[in-house]
Write a structure and sequence with these properties.
20 strands, 357 residues, alpha/beta, six-stranded mixed β-sheet, Nitrilase/N-carbamoyl-D-aminoacid amidohydrolase
Length: 357
């Protein structure tokens, strides 16, 4: 797939920290997830592009989008997985490659997890849990390698996993009854130093994922400032901002995915699920005349970060096509509630870079 890059370096002032922050919006396909090496090679041009104007010894932070690690569920899968026309067919081939392991995992979603989602949600949950070890290894191998090679901090988008123990080593928590959408922060040594779990999964996610807690939104001190992460829909909820503000976050990071690209320019349907509506939505925004992209600016990072003392916000979207599912958006950099830089085309890829002295 052809990559088109947008690189804009902005010289600005931040109250704490400093360095080069790069927001990456990649265009990927399911073929990029065939192996650890193919995944690494697909991301390498973006990583290189992010470092074009980096000064010697300057701290660096790379921000990848939500779900970028999720499709590692298929890594090292058989050829039929990657020739499947749709996600359901791909899942069938993953199951057929590991039938006994799948049956055990599927039963555990009921007996160990006590999960109450629909049957198809249990199937998805079982697949992600049985493939979690290989997915985690690939994810840590690739993003840890980039962190070491480039000497950079990395917000590694997100991945779907049970609880993860991290420190000197990283491993899945044994017999975990949970499955979360979670983002890992890597330091320049390639080590995971924090994990954020999505507190407000959307409706489709709730069919097979658990909710995280507000306590699962940490803030980490880095040379660039105090960094807090909200995964996608969390950035639509005031309590997530209150949590990160109470921890004195300087940089608000939002890895995101808009599931189905044309939804970005489609009519907004309100909060998903509706019961997660925080109660401050203007009824006029539900009249069928507002677009999803405009509501991202009103009710997500741009509109809500002004309730915090954080001067900078960064939103990265995943682009591409995965077994018929498409992603798109307009990655951006926001300064105190105003867009400072944004990708022009929601269907494009690119790297937006901000230097903060």
């Amino acid at each position: 797939m052809k990559h088109t890059f947008l690189l804009s370096v902005l010289l600005l002032t931040l109250s704490r920290g400093g360095g080069l922050v790069s927001v990456i919006q990649p265009q990927l396909t399911e073929q990029d997830y065939r192996s650890v090496q193919s995944f690494y090679q697909a991301l390498l041009p973006y990583v290189r592009d992010s470092q074009t104007n980096r000064q010697s010894g300057e701290p660096s932070l790379l921000i990848f989008p939500e779900y970028i690690g999720a499709w590692l569920v298929a890594v090292n899968g058989c050829d039929r997985v990657f020739k499947a026309d749709n996600l359901n067919s791909a899942m069938i081939w993953i199951i057929l490659a590991h039938p006994v392991k799948f049956i055990s995992s599927f039963i555990h979603t009921y007996t160990r997890d006590h999960f109450s989602g629909p049957v198809m949600g249990h199937v998805e949950r079982a697949i992600f849990k049985m493939q979690a070890e290989s997915a985690l290894k690939a994810y840590v191998d690739v993003f840890g390698k980039f962190a070491r090679e480039v000497d950079t901090w990395i917000v590694a988008g997100s991945i779907l996993l049970p609880e993860v123990n991290y420190g000197e080593t990283i491993a899945l928590r044994k017999r975990s009854p949970h499955l979360y959408n979670q983002s890992m922060l890597f330091n320049p040594d390639g080590a995971v130093v924090s994990i954020t779990r999505k507190a407000f999964p959307v409706g489709q996610e709730l069919d097979f994922l658990d909710r995280g807690q507000l306590a699962d939104l940490p803030v980490v001190s880095t040379p660039l400032g105090r960094l807090g992460i909200m995964i996608c829909a969390d950035s639509w909820h005031p309590e997530c901002y209150a949590r990160l503000d109470s921890l004195e976050a300087d940089l608000l990071i939002v890895p995101s995915l808009v599931n189905q690209a044309e939804r970005w320019i489609s009519v907004w349907g309100g909060y998903d699920p509706p019961e997660d509506d925080p109660g401050d939505v203007d009824p006029e925004d539900l009249n069928g005349n507002t677009r999803e992209r405009d509501m991202w600016k009103k009710y997500a990072l741009k509109g809500r970060m002004t309730a915090t003392s954080a001067p900078w916000g960064f939103n990265s979207f995943l682009g591409g096509e995965f077994w018929g599912l498409t992603g798109a958006g307009q990655s951006n950099i926001i300064h105190r509630g105003e867009i400072f830089q944004e990708l022009e085309d929601y269907r494009s890829d690119g790297v937006i870079t901000l230097r903060i002295p």
